[in-house]
Amino acid sequence: MHRKPEPLPAPCGESFGMRQLTRNECRDIQLVAAVLAGVFLLLCFRWLSVASIAGGLAIAALLPRPWRRSARLTALLAAIVLSLAPIDVLPWNRPGPPRWVEVVFGHPGAVAVRRAQVGGLRLGGCTRSTLDAHYVFVW
């Protein structure tokens, strides 16, 4: 009696070594990547990362179906990288033309307060962590 072979799991297009990943394995990898990106966004929030995710997901929606998964993962990776960058973009207005300004932490002196009032720098808070932005783009 001849047995019918069992169907192979549907691949998701990614391969490590000799075997292709199943759809469930690909979903697990995407879930882990999304959780890690969320943790990075919470720990070192950058508006640049939010823009990266929004743009990447918008582009992924416009791409043909086989390319969407790669575009989503690329957007998540870009968000993680940009959340660790020493720069950021602020979504609110500051006096003056669009430009990069330094972020100053600690107790500001009179000169720093005057520069912040005219838009020459941004006051960042009491203490600086290693993940805080050093420069921000304001407009």
Give a verbal description of the structure.
This protein has helices spanning 23-43, 47-62, 65-83, 110-117; strands spanning 11-16, 19-22, 87-89, 99-105, 121-125, 135-138. The protein has 139 residues and is α/β, with parallel strands linked by helices. α1 runs parallel beside α3 (65-83) and α2 (47-62) packs antiparallel against α3. The relative contact order is 0.13. The protein has two domains: 11-83, no CATH class; 87-138, no CATH class.
Brief description of this entry?
The protein is of the alpha/beta class and 139 residues long. The chain has four helices and six strands.
Give the total of beta strands: 6
* Overall outline: elongated
Determine the strand fraction and express it as a percent band. 15-25%
What is the radius of gyration? Answer: 22 Å
Q: Roughly what is the average pLDDT, rounded to an integer?
A: 80
Across the major sheet, the strand order is 3-6-4-5
- Regarding quaternary structure, what we see is single chain
Order of helices and strands: EEHHHEEHEE
Count, helices = 4
Amino-to-carboxy terminus distance: 76 Å
Domain count: 2
Low-confidence stretches: none
- The SS-based structural class is alpha/beta
Main sheet?
A: 4 strands, mixed
Helix content: 40-55%
